[in-house]
Amino acid sequence: MHIISKGRGALIAAAMLTGPVATGLAAQEAPPADLSATITEPAPAEAAEGPTIEGIISARSGDQMQVTGADGANNVVALNDTTVIRASGGFLGLGRETLGADALLNGLPVSVETVQGAQGLVATRVALKNKDLKTASMIRSGTAQGFAEQSAATEALRGRVGDIDQYNVKSTTNVNFDTGKATLSPQAKSELCATASTAEQMDNALLLVVGYTDSTGPEEFNQMLSEKRAGSVVNYLQQVCGWKPYRMLTPTGMSEAQPVADNMTDAGKSQNRRVAVNVLVSKGLDGL
């Protein structure tokens, strides 16, 4: 999670993360959250100031919202009647507008000011961009108008299950990581944007992101690490490289499975600490 002090600029991104979420929260593909619930814990005026959290809304459940940062870390904050939700920009001429909690859609980049409550962080102010709200709303509604920039074939792909057997793999880019880390290197960042740029030129292309580890460490830790690495890649592709979230299949972590090199050597382990970014085109639409 990328956490900044007050006064820092808001995250510039329009993305939708579909990666792993905290237990009890709805995943990206879930139906709209029930917004009728109200939080029982207020944000008192004397509460200690909390961090400002920047990232993408990756889950909603009642009065809780999960925000995933560019590093793949998740943070859950509570919303209540005193939370101010403000959008800026020119979408539909709204200018700067105060919104309701139902505007906080999965995939929406936000900057959240918080205070420390008895049960955890409570959001006092949520800032977002109207252009990002438009994108998130299009993805949620799936209307023809929202996806006018995409071909009908690409729109049809959105609802398909991410079974790789249904797709032709056009290319795979592997980016590597240090032991126990999920931080992207400058080289990895460059390679990710190059991959996104190439895939953008392909009709109906989707990306499938899969994280891996070497054999160092316990299996449970490696599973979480592989998922975190995949999340870091997905966030960077969407937030920095501009890859559209509805052209991303659900990412996954595979721990130390499917090694590409011998885990008995340092060189082999280095190759296995990776995230594979697969460029896919549905077999039914390849060539359209």
Automatic annotation (TrEMBL):
UniProt cross-references to Pfam families, sorted A to Z: OmpA (PF00691)
InterPro entries (UniProt xref): Bact_OuterMem_StrucFunc (IPR050330), OMP_bac (IPR006664), OmpA-like (IPR006665), OmpA-like_sf (IPR036737)
OmpA-like domain sequence ranges: 164-283
Keywords, ordered alphabetically: Cell outer membrane, Membrane, Signal
Gene3D superfamilies: OmpA-like domain
TM regions (residue ranges): none
Signal peptide: 1-26
Record bears the keyword Magnesium: no
Subcellular localization(s) per the UniProt record: Cell outer membrane
Protein name according to UniProt: OmpA family protein
Organism: Sphingobium naphthae
